[in-house]
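Researcher: For the annotation table, I need structure tokens for Helix-turn-helix domain-containing protein. Please keep the output clean. Sequence:
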Amino acid sequence: MAQVPSPTIRARRLRRELRRLRDRTGRTAEEVAKILGWHRTKVIRFELGHSRVMPKDMQSLLDLYDASEGERESLTGLLRQARQKGWWSAYGDVLPDDYVGFEAEATSISAFESLYVPGLLQTEEYVRAIVKAGRTTADHDEVDRRVAARLSRKVLLSRDAPPRLWVVLDEAVVRRVVGGPRVMKAQLRRLIDVSELATVELQILPFAAGAHAAMGGPFTLLDYADPLLDPTVVYLDNDSSTLLLEEEKQVVRYRLVFDHLRAKALDPDESTAFLARVAEGYPD
């Protein structure tokens, strides 16, 4: 499966480019809005992604910023791509945030998980057990849609150039029995199989490692082919909210934390053996 441009990534790149062009003029966002006769917050909303940039508004900005023909062509292309829909738009009711759009074009994914197996590595039965546990009032159709959305993400690992995936799992993830012994055993075997892929590294952080740098919870680092155009994103997630961090100092902090986790965890071969021992404890 070939990789297709992610509208989410293109929208972020467009916002960054508009901000760069404005900075080049030396004008504040409020000054630009005043010149164009807009509400004073309109430019800021564009640059933060709180409002969609319409073609007419972008042309006004490019004229004011004295953009070159090359810049106009590039940004017009970005706007066109940003307005397209990714496959995940069909699941907008059960995928409410932009994470999948950011994940779709990542060339490297580094994740620490302390609660459950990451979505890209989950079996269908495991997904269903997780969704049912977290959505106690959901009807059958909603559960099915959430499961389908989660499983659709897994095509990322089978595309022509899959991302490099490095996952550190807290031991609690593989000890907690989700969906019953049969489901859990199948999930552990899935982790063992995936760990053999050339593009996947999987490590277990054992209880014996004691306190560690990510006691605050799970996180994911998403890296891209051109870090100048598309800087790294840090994604934080819990039951009630999600957060995307983009500031360089925040990214540096979480990358350092991930390095510490990798150093404390069992190496990949030891981790695979650990998973096999845990799986043997469940009946066939």
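Researcher: And a one-line annotation?
Model: The radius of gyration is 22 Å.
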